[in-house]
Design a protein that fits this description.
By secondary structure, this protein is mainly alpha-helical. The chain has helices spanning 3-30, 38-58, 68-84, 92-100, 106-132, 137-144, 155-175, 181-199, 209-215, 217-222, 224-258. It is globular, with a radius of gyration of 19 Å.
């Protein structure tokens, strides 16, 4: 990818971030009469920004030297999302974990998940609209691409990988929950970068159902059950296993050791 093409992709991401920030500011100013809708807007806009930027980020994966530049961009983008999207979860698997551990109500879980998938769908439509302009060749190629085949192993192996990645990520989130927010963002961004490095060539290391839905919508349409199992069911199981370990297993072991 030429320097001009790279600059265009970065500008698309910057414009997406600016659009998201404007929407969040408008929502904060105009929803004082309906405060219960504000969390919905936060989740929708957060999922939109992450999904739209990741669409564009995938086009930069082949920048030399490989994979150093791509991994650096993953880290920087992930950290930036962490700093620029406060107050939202942005991951249906994380919302499901909160619900299963009684830290969220059925209504809150439903609204969060609906907002996250809606944001993911809007990001898919938005980024393809941008690509339709054909500003750079990479946009035209991406627009013509159908299912990119992100699963480069067996469905069973992909399922276990996404489950494991989700388990590790959510366990780290709980372990770092009381840490300084700025430090926490950087550590989680580093963890995500490591997981992408280790498993990105096999499944994409997504462990976010809304993000997977946005990135690989055409794949879901072609092989719905395979992709649902790998990118929706596996991350949710991983996050729930963390809740069980954190809330049940670890306290039990502590009580046993104290005795």
């Amino acid at each position: 990818m030429a320097a001009y093409d790279t600059c265009v992709s970065l500008l698309v991401m910057a414009g997406t971030v600016a659009l998201t920030a404007c929407c969040r500011r408008l929502a904060r100013q105009s929803m004082h009469r309906k405060p219960h809708l504000y969390p919905f807007v936060l989740e929708l806009s957060g999922a939109f920004q992450i999904c739209a930027c990741t669409h564009e980020l995938r086009l930069l994966a082949d920048l030399p030297p490989k994979p150093q530049v791509a991994l650096a961009l993953v880290y920087l983008c992930t950290a930036f999302h962490g700093f620029s999207l406060p107050g939202s979860i942005n991951n249906p698997a994380s919302s499901f974990q909160l619900f299963c551990s009684n830290r969220s109500t059925v209504k809150a879980w439903g609204l969060q998940s609906a907002a996250q998938f809606l944001g993911a769908a809007l990001a898919h439509v938005y980024i393809r609209s941008v690509w339709t302009l054909g500003t750079i060749p990479a946009h035209s190629r991406a627009l013509a691409e159908n299912c990119s085949g992100p699963i480069q192993t067996t469905v069973a192996s992909a399922f276990l990988l996404e489950l494991f990645f989700s388990f590790v990520f959510h366990l780290a989130c709980l372990r770092l929950e009381s840490m300084d927010p700025k430090t926490k963002v950087h550590l989680l961004a580093l963890l995500i970068t490591i997981l992408v490095y280790k498993g990105g060539h096999l499944t994409g290391a997504i462990f976010n159902p809304a993000l997977a839905f946005s990135l690989h919508l055409s794949c879901f349409l072609e092989k719905f059950w395979n992709y649902t199992l790998v990118y929706w069911v596996a991350p949710c199981i991983g996050s729930v296993l963390v809740a069980l370990v954190w809330d049940e297993v670890i306290p039990h072991l502590r009580r046993h050791l104290n005795v």
